[in-house]
Amino acid sequence: MSVLVFVEGLNGEIKNSSLEAASYGSQVASTLGTTATAVAIGDINETALAKLGEQGISKVLFDADTRLKQFVAEAYVAVIAAAAQKENAKVLVFSNTGIGATVGSKLAVRLNGSLATNVTALPETESGAFTVTRSVFSGKAFANVELSSDIKIIAVKKNAIDINNNSGNTATVENFSASLADADFAVAPKETVMQDTEGGILLPEAERVVSGGRGLKGPENWHLVEDLAKALGAATACSKPVSDLDWRPHYEHVGQTGITISPNLYIAIGISGAIQHLAGVNSSKVIVVINKDPEAPFFKAADYGIVGDAFEIIPKLIEAAKALDK
Amino acid sequence: MKILVCISNVPDTTSKINFTADNKSFDKNGVQYVINPWDEYALTRAIELKEAKGGAVTVLNVGEADTEPNIRKALAIGADDAIRVNAHPKDAYFVAQQIAAIAKENSYDIILMGKESIDYNGFQVHNMVGELLSIPAITPAFKLDMLDDTTVRLEREIEGGKEIVEVKIPFVASAQQPMSEPRIPNMRGIMTARTKPLKVVEPVSAEAKTSIAAYSKPEKKGGVKMIDPENAGELITLLRNEAKVL
Q1: Prediction pTM value
Q2: Is A256 at the interface with chain B, CB within 8 A?
């Protein structure tokens, strides 16, 4: 038996969220007295895969089938199921991305396994039961969940697990291919449109996020948010009213009905902090709130706060950020 | 077009989340339940499709009798009939099996639901239903349009962009903003909802594969440190030296 980790690529490299999943998987493997194997699909460079040794992965099964460059759920499920069978995997670890949670849910049915998504901590096995902690109620609570099937499937929430760094360790990379039928590609995307990320950082993967609300008064002022983000190496985000008003695209909307993020640093500017907004960001490690209204509810959830005019404060922050040694 | 919309009964977003003294169950005391906000996008889009193309919208909930006010609300918003599977929704796999059983009996063209519930945040049920029925699951979708009587075009959110997918019925899709603009029931809707059929059926035998042993709450924040706006740059120093996030 072994632990199998699915790693996702981005521009040929491995996503940080997958490095976290790999670190999680290798720690589970050492608890269970076994090894962790990774399975990688599509367009990822082999040097990056070998470096997964630093996260504690001993072997990588790599399916470089060019048809798998883009995500196709059925085909990915087939490859990972074949890898799980080859490795006799009893624990499967994913990052809790759209891809990870989708493939994990399908495999839970196909492999008759127990699935927990949004997992925030390593499993506990001492009592004989296998339990994990997951985030529930939109970040307002945790549940300790017992996974009772023989096969356990875990999707790890972003930024909940530290990345192992056993510098210099390398994993062996083996070519792997599963037999795929045409039917596995029946629901392939017709077209994929990527947002303009020129110089920008993918929001769900970002370690730092600068977010703007209606307090910024209009899309013409967004250069302030963008400049501060750039100075801090952060991604940009926005509140729901801002995306509803079309000042910013929907994929930047964080909150209850937008995307959920959990960066190390979240800076909210001109956002009052409605409970729906907090639901999307309350797992952030450090929250900074900048608002001209001292009564803004967001201050209650913040670690640092500044009451004042965003248009005066942001340039000072940009200046201070630029002065930092990198 | 026969559309099944699965709805979940969840604590209102603004609810205080508390647990019973032994931390083993959610404390329902004083909690207002609503239709899961993400499910509302699915419900409204289904009703819009019916209004444009004809057909019927059935609402399905897996839950005990106390979910019926929200099932009636879905009928008041415009669904034609409803089914309640009379069971406590033990886990995602249990719920997915109940939905799949109902779907097998009634052969729906489209099965819709929200991308996740705001209480357990699983993002699991739609993919499991697709897998159980061996039909595609397109998830999470923010746009859904009929191209002809059997082909549907969906736009699906992916990290860093979107995918456009065309799929033949039957299929499952999960909804998120801005698939539709959720509606508030009007007086006529509320009146007619009272007499629309709400069928209660017993669950099929299905095993749950996970169980919640205990709940806990995150540690409270240490309080906010306020910084003088005149010296706003001080924030950056604190973020580096004290919070160590820069």
Answers
A1: 0.94
A2: yes
